[in-house]
Amino acid sequence: MEKTWRWFGKNDKITLSMLRQIGVEGIVTALHDVPNGEVWPREKIRDLREYIEGFGMRWSVVESLPVSESIKYGGPDRDALIDNYKQSLRNLSAEGVHTICYNFMPVLDWARTDLNHPNPNGTSNLYFSYSEFAYFDIYIVGREGAREEWAAFKVPGIDTDRDILAEVEALRSKMTPEGEHRLVENIIVKTQGFVSGNIREDDEHPVELFRQLLSLYDGITRERLRENMKYFLSAIMPVCEECGMNMCVHPDDPPFPVLGLPRIVTSDEDIEWFLGAVDNPHNGLTFCAGSLSAGAHNDVTAMARKYASRTHFVHLRSCHIFPNGDFTEASHLGGRADIVELVRIFEKENPELPMRVDHGMTMLDDASKGYNAGYSFLGRMFAMGQVQGIMAAADKELGIRYKITGFYE
Question: Which residues contact 133 (CB under 8 A, 6 or more apart)?
């Protein structure tokens, strides 16, 4: 697979010269300065592509060309927004960029309650606590019906009689204003602003803005969300065929309903549905082993075997699920996702697939650098080293010549 890295543009503290030194071949990025819904100008695409190529790498994947909320909930302007999306696809194709990783998750791109959860070895990782998330939903957002939903909630795939509401009340008895601020920052500011653009770090009232975004989905059921996704994909597939563009949707993270919102790609059944709903080879999957492994209901290895031929992009990471259902990012050699076996599967199916390691731990002096949450440098470099070793071993098993980048062979 092609070794790629998610890079947040020319203002990213992690520079392309740094990435070239650690064996990165392709860059995964986006035009982060273009507002959601607007056409990506070809001149801007060309400028960024040429900048990347100047460092000896290529722009491999767009992550992401955002799907506007109005397209997801079926607003009155969705056709105009889809037309803009089509033109952006044409402009990207004209500049030689042909793979688009996107998501169809309402409002939240991904959710964690702790961005610096300590590991036993002194590093830290992202973490999801059901009780903290429920507290945020019930007492910070104040969503109507949240208490009743959490009272009936069962952790997907986990046999536990966990009483989430009792945990929430225990948490409430010791919650401080600083603790509530931390949850707001972790759930809707630091994990969203640099990804979706819906909420920025300089927004003065992020919770109120978040409530407004949630209200856009009033009455939107899982079936309606599916209809809207099918409408979007059906509309853009002719352009994808015309321009050779591969669309690859990212699974929901975490892979279960949150905040009363329907979810779209959480399981084998969901993946089978959207691939069949618009059965076109350009309609494919971003196989994110981390997102899928956060759900105990998912057999990640079996899903990789089943959907390898419709996968256009691979995210290699893994999650560890605790007995109560809470989960954290695991080592790239551990957790529920068998990265060794996944590499074997994808190297055999299509060794040219772009792959990135995703969500690395925070280690050594990463914490002082101000990197985006989950996107440390040293932690991801460590993970990249682990995965490169796995790839080299798998390639030897398969009789494939492993490509060493940046060295004399």
Answer: 111, 113, 187, 258
Average pLDDT over residues 223-247: 98
Task: Tell me the per-residue pLDDT of 165-208, one tens digit each, with 9 for 90 and over.
Answer: 999 999 999 999 999 999 999 999 887 655 555 656 555 688 99
Q: For 376, how many CA atoms within 13 A lie in the half-sphere containing its CB? A: 24
Residue matched to tokens 């989905």 = 217
Tokens of 34: 């273009």
Q: How far apart are CA 131 and CA 164, in angstroms?
A: 6
Cβ atoms 321, 248 nearer than 8 A: no
Max Cα–Cα distance, the chain, nearest Å: 62
Phi, psi of 99 (to 5 degrees): -125, 125
pLDDT of residue 204: 65
Q: Which amino acid is at 301?
A: T
Residues classed as catalytic: 250, 288, 315, 358-359, 375
Global pTM reads 0.94
Separation CA 388–CA 402 (nearest Å)? 9
3-state SS record for the chain = CEEEEECCCCCCCCCHHHHHHCCCCEEEECCCCCCCCCCCCHHHHHHHHHHHHCCCCEEEEEECCCCCHHHHHCCCCHHHHHHHHHHHHHHHHHCCCCEEEECCCCCCCCCCCEEEEECCCCCEEEEECHHHHHHHHHHHHCCCCHHHHHHCCCCCCCCCCCCHHHHHHHHHCCCCHHHHHHHHHHHHHCCCCCCCCCCCCCCCCHHHHHHHHHHCCCCCCHHHHHHHHHHHHHHHHHHHHHHCCEEEECCCCCCCCECCECCCCCCHHHHHHHHHHCCCCCEEEEEEHHHHHCCCCCCHHHHHHHHHHHEEEEECCCEEECCCCCEEECCCCCCCCCHHHHHHHHHHHCCCCEEECCCCCECCCHHHCCCCCCCCCHHHHHHHHHHHHHHHHHHHHHCCCCCCCCCCC
Q: Do residues 53 and 32 touch, judged by C-beta distance below 8 A?
A: no
Q: Give the residue from 182, 186, 188 showing the smallest Cα distance to 205.
A: 188
